[in-house]
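Interim report to the steering committee. The following record documents the input for D-alanyl-D-alanine carboxypeptidase (Penicillin-binding protein 5/6) (373 residues).
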Amino acid sequence: MGLPLRAASALVTACMVALLTPGTAVSAAAPRLPGQLKKIKARSWIVADAETGEVLAAKNPHLHLLPASTQKVLTAVTLIPLLGADAEIRPTEETCYPEGTKVGMTPKLTYKAADLFRALLMVSANDAAMSLTVPQGGMKPTLDLMNAEAKRLGANDTLAGSPNGLDVDLGLNVKTQHTTSYDLAVILRQGLTLPDFVSYAQTNDATFPALREVKDKKTKKKKTKKYKMPIYSHIRMLPTQSAAYDGFVAGKNGYTNAAKQTFVGAAERDGHKIIIALMAADSLWDNAKALFDYGFANAGKVQAVESLPAPPGTEPTALADPGATNAAAPVPAQRKASVNLVLAGVGGGFVVAGGAILLVRRRRRPAIEAPDE
């Protein structure tokens, strides 16, 4: 016996309200939200199939939040196609001494771009990020390139205000610098198409050019000598690290007081490559493992709740008109409107009324802006 018309109408209305409300979404074909996902303490997260672009589960995937050092993925994805690995970069006094984590650069040395990209992605070096802006003519032209690249990739809710992800220290807040877990997945997916990016990001240990004072054995006087300083990745999911994850490919973590813990990463098992992202999280590695585990358990088995745009290719972004980078980019079709099958109670859009399946078509929500923390 079917539901009365008034009850059916109320049920559809409730589903539409749920779809327009930020929340946790999983496919109707998926099992009920596993306990390990319910326990994740983060304002936003996403699990996506890197091959197909299908989003398998998400919580507030389009919520504007501060990126912290996950911003460096966009920096690398933008600049790697522009700078050859052997390109020589001479940093300035200003770029060598930013706030936060540094690898110890000096304006007395010239560095290869490959060394800076490794330091950027392995040890989250803010001085490397700033020094990578030098070939483009400084921070403003580099940010123009980064924001243009974000739009080209379909990361339409991303605004870069710094190349390193620092926020309050630079006078930035969520209005002047933001991204989303969805956009982080989009940007990393592009990074996975760049062999140099993957190589830099999955390096566990390397060396970095540095200077140190040594005493001359003959004169007993101190002199400055160049040497290769060991550096070790901060990404704990890499092999041999404390939270090593089988099949982990590449990723980037971040932290500021305002952004809290952030992370975007990819792993591959049994022919499936999964991308996950976490934002404003209380902790990273256990949460990341839970998201990866969910992705591998459900890839190819559940209906997508939405899709990532396909990577557009590896042509470097060029700014014919730097002033045009603030223009609104077209929204990918799959985000304008998509049919989503999601469990009732977690952003539901799949209901049965009078024996009929009602699919509620979701229109792209306006970007939801979180308050600066």
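Residues 69 and 254 are 4 Å apart (CA to CA). The committee is asked to note this result when reviewing the revised timeline.
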